[in-house]
Each structure stands twice: as structure tokens, then as C-alpha cells.
Amino acid sequence: MKMMNSYPLVLLLIFSHTSTTMAQSPAAAPTGPATPSTVASPAPVPSSPPTDIIRILKKARGFTTLIRLLQATQVSNQINSQLLTSNGGLTLFAPNDNAFSSLKPGFLNSLNDQQKNELIQFHLLPTFVSISNFDTLSNPVRTQAGENPDRLALNITSSGGNQVNMTTGIVNVTLGGTVYTDHQLAVYQVDKVLLPRDFFEAKPPAPSPSPETPKASKDKSSDTTATPADDALSSAITVKHPLLVSLSAVALLASAFTW
């Protein structure tokens, strides 16, 4: 009787244990090590394109003739190359199209290739000069056209950058606004073409070759060469000599008989 009463209690305990076990949540599965996230590298900063004087002048507009001369003389390539290899920089005085149109008709066409190159180089200073530093330059200012201070002289006067005036001995020029500057290249507009005196003053003539030294005249007294006249005289004496001997003999005989 006691066993019959305990049987339902055992079933109840088994049921309760099973329910409790099923009610527990399963253990979480172990996770592997966290994968490190990929850090995106910053995009490379594009390098600035090299300075191109033709592109600068085209963007500024109004410099068609100057652009044509820079390309024809290949000075544009020279400028770009110097800016890459030199630390001193460059300064370009850029005459606009109105400045070139004020020149005498046919002037540019009358220049040969060397003179066109010299004309453009005369507008270039071999250093960077800011608008406020022109008063620090010493006259005559050296340009890339050459070292001749008389025929290629450029004199600049400035009052602290408020006004910059230039003279070549042929024209007086006023510096206009700044076309471009990047602390290595400065481009300033000018109202006239800088004309060097080298184009308008006669150059000194080239030294003439030294005259040839005259050949020393022969000393007639020491000349023993027989002339035709001497040969004739000698022949005459040789022919007449026997006759003279005969005449002398006749004279002796005549004197003997007379005696």
C-alpha cells in the first residue's frame, strides 16, 4: 500500500526534473578570435602639374603674339625647363597684343631668328622678383638677353611697388598688373614691347684682317743671275775678240815698216 502511494510521487519528481532541464537555454557556442577590420589607406594627393607658361598666358588671354613668339623661338620650353631645375625662379614682362600692334608695321618680320630670340630673352629676368621688390634691384638690371650693358641695358625704377617704370634707351614702359605669380614665376603685363638698343644702333664693324707683310725685295747687287742683255753682251765680246787681235797685229807691222 505504501509502494502504491510513492509511485506517483516518483513520476512527479522525474517530470519536474525533465521540465527544468529542457527549460534551460543551451550553452552558447564558442566563438573564434575577432577578425581585425581592414583600415582604408588615404587616397594619394595628386601632385600639381608642372608650370606651363603657354597655359598661363592662354588662360590670361590677350597674349596671342607673345605666345607665338615663345613657341617659335622655343623659349617657352626653356622657361618651363628652368623652373624645374632652378631655385632662383624667373620673371617675365609680358607685352599684350596691343603692345605688339603699336610696333612699326613689319618690324617682327624684319627680325631674323636670332634677333627674335634675343627680343624674348630681353623680357626675362633670371630671378623671381615680387611686385614690392623692384626697388631693390640695381641698374642696369641683368636680363637673359646678354651682358652688354650699353646695347642690352634695362633700367627699372620703382616707388615701393606702387608704380614700376622701365626704360631701354629706346622706349619707356610702365608695368601693369600681375598676370601670374606662384613665388617661383612672376608674369607682369607691360604696355609696350621692350626694344633693346642693340636693334637700332649700328654695331661697330668687325676688325679688318691685318695686311700681309710685303715680301722683301731682292738685292740687285747680290743677284748673280744672268739676264738676256748680259748674255748678248758676252756673246758680242766673244765674237769681236779675234778681230781686235788682228787689228792690233796689223798696227804693229805698219809701225815696223815705217820705222
UniProtKB/TrEMBL annotation:
Annotated keywords: Cell membrane, Glycoprotein, GPI-anchor, Lipoprotein, Membrane, Signal
SUPFAM superfamilies cross-referenced by the UniProt entry: FAS1 domain (SSF82153)
Ranges of compositional bias, category Low complexity: 25-42
Top-level taxon in the UniProt lineage: Eukaryota
Membrane disposition: Lipid-anchor; GPI-anchor
GO biological process: plant-type secondary cell wall biogenesis
Subcellular location: Cell membrane
Pfam families: Fasciclin (PF02469)
Leader sequence segment: 1-23
Region Disordered, residue ranges: 24-47, 201-229
Presence of the UniProt keyword 4Fe-4S in the record: no
InterPro entries: FAS1_dom_sf (IPR036378), FAS1_domain (IPR000782), FLA_A (IPR045003)
Residue span, FAS1 domain: 50-194
A cellular-component GO term for this protein: side of membrane
PROSITE patterns: FAS1
Entry similarity comment: Belongs to the fasciclin-like AGP family.
Primary role: May be a cell surface adhesion protein.
Protein name (database record): FAS1 domain-containing protein
